[in-house]
Amino acid sequence: MTLLVLGLGNDLLGDDGIGLLAAASLEGHLGSRVEIARSGRSGLYLVEELEGYDDAIILDSVLGEQPGRVRELPAAALRPLGPSAHYAGLPEALALARSAGLRVPGRLRIFAVEIGVVQTIGSTPSLAVRSAVDGLVALVKETASAWGYLPTREAIHA
Question: How many of the other CB atoms lie within 10 Å of CB of 119?
Fold first, then answer.
């Protein structure tokens, strides 16, 4: 069994890079069965990132009213941005991969940090959004442990 923790975003757009920042803070802290990756890709390109893993946790940003608030997004509720032959959302990408017989994660959780509408090219993440990293890290560790990728507290103290 292998778990992928995938941080998504664009580090040139300040708060949009929060998924990348959180993934970087997890590197080397989750053991050999957990891989950490970072990507600026979206849509069908995510199949390439997810292929071959049993489970996945995605870290990203989402527009919202409370920058810095951490939310879990249900994968089934995600929709494409609009009708386009050039864009497919994550649910469509995973369905297409499965129908093609590709091995993609059976379990998927998406944690996102709310960001504001205005993003400045070349800026760093705001303090409100950066402060969400610890919460994202805790959610990833909790999920990885619940899925059997990390030792539980009971196993550590046994």
Answer: 17
